[in-house]
From TrEMBL:
PROSITE patterns: CDP_ALCOHOL_P_TRANSF
Membrane topology field: Multi-pass membrane protein
Listed transmembrane segments: 52-68, 155-171, 177-195
EC number: 2.7.8.-
SUBUNIT field: Homodimer.
Protein residues bound to Mg(2+) 2: 66, 87, 91
Cofactor note: Contains a di-nuclear catalytic Mg(2+) center.
Annotated organism of origin: Streptomyces sp. gb1(2016)
One GO process term, biological-process aspect: phospholipid biosynthetic process
Organism taxonomic ancestry: Bacteria, Bacillati, Actinomycetota, Actinomycetes, Kitasatosporales
Top-level division of the source organism's lineage: Bacteria
GO molecular function, one term: magnesium ion binding
Name this protein carries in UniProt: Phosphatidylinositol phosphate synthase
GO CC, any one term: plasma membrane
Subcellular location per the Swiss-Prot or TrEMBL entry: Cell membrane
Length: 222
C-alpha cells in the first residue's frame, strides 16, 4: 500500500537530490552499496546495544538510498537488469540486518527469548515473502498481489516503533513497549502476506498449466 501511495510523493521529493548526485558523478550502484552499508551499520552497531533512537536515525538516513538509486537510474536512462538484481538482493541484506539487530538485543541485554524469536520470525518471514514474488515471477507468473505487509510496511512499522521506543533513553516512560508491539504486528502481517502470495501463485500456476495443456491439446488435434 505504501509502495503504491507514498512512492510518487518520495519520487517528487528525492528527484532533485538524485539529479545532484548524478551531476557529481555518483553512480546508482554506488548509492545502492553505500545505502546498504549504512543501514547495516546502524542496525548492527546500535540496536544490539539498545540504542534504538540513534540506530533508527542512522538507518532512516541510509534507507532512503533505496528510493534514490532507482530514481537516479531512471533519470539517467541507465536502468539495468544488473541494477534491479543488485537493488533487490541488497534489500534482503539490509532487512536481514535490521531484524538481526532487534534479535541480538533481545538475545543479549534485552533478555527476552520470546521477542528474540519474534524478531527472527520477522527476519525469516520477510525474506520468504520477497522470495515468493521473485520465484513466482521467475517461472513466468505475474504474481498479481502485493499483500498486506510489503517491505515498505515492514520497515516503516518497525523503524517508527524503534525510533519512538528509543525515546525511553531520553526519559519518556513506558514508550519502549512500542517495539514489541511492532514486532508482533510485522510477524503476524508477514504471515498473512505470505499466505496471500502463496495462494495467488498456486492459482496463477494452475491457470497457466491449464492454459498450456489446452494449447498442447489443440496442437495435437490438428
Ligand atoms: C521523536 C522522533 C522519534 C523518532 C522516530 C524515528 C522516525 C523514523 C521513521 C521512519 C523511518 C522509516 C523509513 C522507511 C522508509 C522505507 C523506504 C524504503 O526503502 O522502502 C522500500 C520500498 C520498496 O522498494 P523496492 O521496490 O526497491 O523493493 C522491492 C521490495 O523490497 C520487494 O519486497 P516485498 O515487498 O516483496 O517484500 C521485493 O520483492 C523486490 O525485490 C524489491 O525490489 O519502497 C517503497 O515502498 C516506496 C515507498 C516508501 C514509503 C516510505 C514511507 C516513509 C514514511 C515515513 C517516513 C518518515 C520519515 C521521518 C524521518 C524522521 C527522521 C528523524
Ligand atoms: N543500482 C541500481 C538500482 C536500481 N536500478 C533500477 O531501479 C529499479 C528500482 O527502483 P527503486 O525506485 O525501487 O530503487 C530497479 O529495478 C532497476 O531498474 C538500477 O538500474 N541500478
Ligand atoms: Mg532502490
Ligand atoms: Mg530496493
Amino acid at each position: 500500500m505504501l509502495n503504491k501511495y507514498a512512492r510518487a510523493f518520495f519520487t517528487r521529493v528525492l528527484t532533485p537530490f538524485a539529479a545532484l548526485l548524478l551531476r557529481l558523478g555518483v553512480s546508482p550502484d554506488a548509492v545502492t552499496l553505500v545505502g546498504t552499508a549504512g543501514v547495516m551499520a546502524g542496525a548492527l552497531v546500535f540496536f544490539p546495544m539498545g540504542e534504538f533512537f540513534w540506530g533508527t536515525i542512522v538507518i532512516t538516513v541510509f534507507v532512503f538510498s533505496d528510493l534514490v538509486d532507482g530514481n537516479m537510474a531512471r533519470q539517467a536512462g541507465i536502468s539495468s537488469r544488473w541494477g534491479a538484481f543488485l537493488d533487490s538482493t541488497l534489500d534482503r541484506v539490509a532487512d536481514g540486518a535490521i531484524f538481526a539487530g532487534f534479535a541480538l538485543w533481545y538475545a543479549g541485554s534485552g533478555d527476552d527469548n520470546v521477542l528474540c524469536a519474534v524478531a527472527i520470525f520477522c527476519l525469516a518471514s520477510g525474506q520468504v515473502v520477497s522470495y515468493t514474488k521473485a520465484r513466482g515471477e521467475s517461472i513466468g507468473l505475474p504474481v498479481a498481489v502485493n499483500g498486506l505487509v510489503e517491505r515498505a510496511e515492514r520497515l516503516v512499522i518497525s523503524l517508527v516503533a524503534a525510533g519512538l521506543a528509543g525515546l525511553h533513553g531520553f526519559g519518556v516512560p513506558g514508550i519502549q513497549i512500542l517495539l514489541p508491539i511492532a514486532l508482533w504486528i510485522v510477524a503476524a502481517g508477514s504471515l498473512v502476506t505470505l499466505v496471500q502470495r502463496v495462494v495467488t501463485v498456486r492459482r496463477e500456476s494452475a491457470e497457466a498449466d491449464a492454459a498450456a495443456a489446452a494449447a498442447q491439446g489443440g496442437e495435437a488435434a490438428q
